[in-house]
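Much of what follows relies on a compact textual record of a protein's fold. An example makes this concrete, so a full record is given next.
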Amino acid sequence: MTFTKVAFKCAITLFYSVLFMSSGCGNGNSSTSDNAEGKVDVEGDVSINLPVPNNQNSEDYKIILYGNSHISGVGSMIKQLIEQSTPGTEVETSSHTGGFLDDFYVSTHARNKLIDSTWTHAIFQGQKYSQSQSRIYSTLETEKWLALAKEYNITPILFPEHPQYGNHDEGEYVHGIHQGIVERQASCLAPVGLVWDRVLSLYPDTALHSPDGNHASYLGTYLTSLVFYEMVSGRSADLLGYNPEIDVSISQQQAFGQIVSQVIEENKACPWS
């Protein structure tokens, strides 16, 4: 990578760090440089692989999200979608933002936030990966998060982020990393990148990215949130009616719902699906 490219990437990262600071978001890219140092391990047992609790039929939903700026807006959108489909259902969401999953795990505060409340679901985004695909990062802390959630009867959902603009291999690559995690420690696995790939293959001019080419636009956040809507509630995104309060056209809401449900069905997002 040339100095100019490095400088440009750093400038973009700095800009989004400032932009999201007021909302508690951290680095806008959950990948990391290839020479980043690993984190010190803390106590956590991944030798026990509990079954994944199924909390889809809960009377109300309490959802916690861990991650960086890629989870911005997702929690509130999930809440809006669930409340649309089942009026009267109480939905509480809380986003713990600012870093990678290994950073969060070494924080007692972050771990206590998970176990000190009766969450039904926990969404985990921010597993480190190499954008150049030249280095493999430890997934141990991510596996510990999953094990901890299941110990407290919380449904864990891994959130592999969407691909960057123009990178046609990244979505599948990042999904594959998380698929390996699930093979070692059972969890639900959201096919976010695969859904984005399908939408962009069918509708290549769809503006799912923000201008920086990394973060999701409002439309992209809606698409991602549809994935979690179906996984959390167990209700088909394909059957979700048009919501005029969401700034997405009728045709796009219908098409996105169909694609999300199809991709989830094809990829067995949870062990019971």
In short: The chain has one domain: 59-267. Residues 1-41 have pLDDT under 50 and may be disordered. The chain is about 40% helix and 10% strand.
